[in-house]
Amino acid sequence: MGDISVRLLGIDLAGTEVAAREELVPFGAVRGEVPAIVLGSATTLKKCYEADLAQLALGRSPDDFSAYNEARSVYLAAPGDLVVGRTEPWRQALAASEAVPVEVPELRHYYLTHALLTLAVASPPDAPAAPLARLVRQLREAPHTVVRLFAVDPEARVLLLWLKRAAGLERLRIDANGPDVAERWNRKTTLYPTVEVAEGTSGPAADEDPYDTLAAEAALTPFHQEFGVLLPRLPGYSLTRADADEATMRQRVRTAARLLRERYGLDLGCFKPAEALTGNRIRTAVPLADIDALDMLARQAMRTGEDYVLEVHTDYLRHRVPGYEFILAPSAHVVAGRLAEGGTVQITRGSVWEGSVYIDEETCDGFGIAPTWFRTARQGMATLLGAFERDGRSPGFVKGGVDFAIARLGGRFGATPVVAMQDLNLSSNGAEYVRAFLAQARRALDPDQRLYAATKVVRPAPDTDLKRLKDSTDHDGPHRWVRAITSVPGRWGMIGVAGPCPRQAGQDVLELEQQLHRAGLLRTSLRGTPA
């Protein structure tokens, strides 16, 4: 990548970081507010490629997040926006929209950004390949165009700087977070002190309140050290892989487990990659006194080469609807640089996110979430946003979400539920789609009626393309709106249901998935068995 940066921009990757801070401007804009180029590339920051390889290594079908992200990104485009992509599912999604396709004839690379950079390098300086020329023309003709993308990773940074310069712009507006937010803070380790720092502080007295211990350790976290703000968090410690051999990593994991046992009286932990995607590769219910189990986790960290956190295993409060049980893990969000209305509850399969249901304070108790808990989550999100904006700071936090746990921790915390941040997703996230779907439903139905929505990730059968899924899904009614959002045959898709009650929308989207599964259109159903 360094060589490509030099060839295209005349600067190395370190130089692109400096240039990006001056030339790429985070700009939060809602859909349709300004012209947009939608660049739906997966990102190296979230290790999408590694997540697919991990599935292959387990003998499972990979999700192909790259193809899915390109296809579903179409849903974030307004009429007339340019949408960049490569695959047949992307083409079908474009055919069902009013956006303008910019097709990239390059399928050798997993990441769309890599494909575009390959075209840029192969093009004469004054005659870029057709897809790039179309993007450059858009930026020249409408300099206020915003580029929407999943995240600004190093590859995207080079591409965006090249597009900006080719278009002759002084600044390029991007609907993505600034580099400090995206690369420094968009990690689970933001919420946890390193095990070395935590071990170097004195432990709690025998009668000390565990919340006081938690607050004392929170003061050691990277976020508090930078901003002086305490975020609501769970007990846990970060484990850095950098410069560690296996013996060092074993010791770090064992020490983290010991601190959780000694300081909080906990028996079980949860082991998470610092930058995992959608809950992949998480190990739950880790026995903290089992040395063999802990050493296995150390080997996993060495094998994947990532930073991890070891936190308390959460006993989520749960709420049952017919055929499914929600864990209480609500999410709050920032949209266009502001605290977004409402929030979401997650549909999960094990630890993996599979969908969202939009709720607000008036309806959260329909999922067993007390309004005070819901307000605590939103206040935590507001605190995070406020910390970034304090003292005239402008790091460019324009989008993102935080998952909260409403759970019993046990140990010295007893049976009283806690509400705490669990995962930071300071980038594009799945809730963008339930919010986009809800906005579309509100336009399609009576705009004066209260509407809620649920979206669900589905696993299409190998022959279920978007047209076939739409033929069996799309439905209009005075108080109910149902749509297929995208489909990558044999991989991933998304469906949505909107109506006057969020609980009913959640039940309906799960029932719809089951119906599609019974009809042979899906490989699996959360309520059913694999096809």
Report on the architecture of this protein.
By secondary structure, the chain is of the alpha+beta class. The strands form five sheets. A six-stranded parallel sheet has the order 1-6-5-2-3-4, with helices on both faces. The chain has a six-stranded antiparallel sheet with strand order 16-17-20-23-22-21, sandwiched between helices. Strands 11, 14, 15, 18 and 19 form a five-stranded antiparallel sheet that branches. Helix 8 links the parallel strand 5 and strand 6. Helix 13 packs across helix 14. It starts with a helix and ends in a 13-residue tail after the last helix.
> What portion of residues is helical?
25-40%
Uncertain stretches of 5 or more adjacent residues = none
Described by strand count, sense and barrel closure, the largest sheet is: 6 strands, parallel
Spatial separation of the terminal alpha carbons: 42 Å
Task: Characterize this entry briefly.
The protein is α+β, with helices and mostly antiparallel strands. Strands 1-6-5-2-3-4 form a 6-stranded parallel sheet, sandwiched between helices. Strands 16-17-20-23-22-21 form a 6-stranded antiparallel sheet, sandwiched between helices. Strands 11, 14, 15, 18 and 19 form a 5-stranded antiparallel sheet that branches.
Give the SSE layout:
Blueprint: H1 2-9, H2 13-23, E1 24-26, E2 36-39, H3 48-57, H4 65-72, E3 82-85, H5 88-95, E4 100-103, H6 112-122, H7 130-141, E5 146-149, H8 154-167, E6 172-175, H9 179-185, H10 195-199, H11 210-218, H12 222-227, E7 236-239, H13 246-264, E8 268-273, E9 283-287, H14 291-304, E10 308-312, E11 315-316, E12 318-321, E13 324-327, E14 331-335, E15 338-339, E16 343-349, E17 352-359, H15 371-389, E18 399-408, E19 418-425, H16 431-444, E20 452-458, H17 466-471, E21 475-476, E22 481-487, E23 493-499, H18 502-518
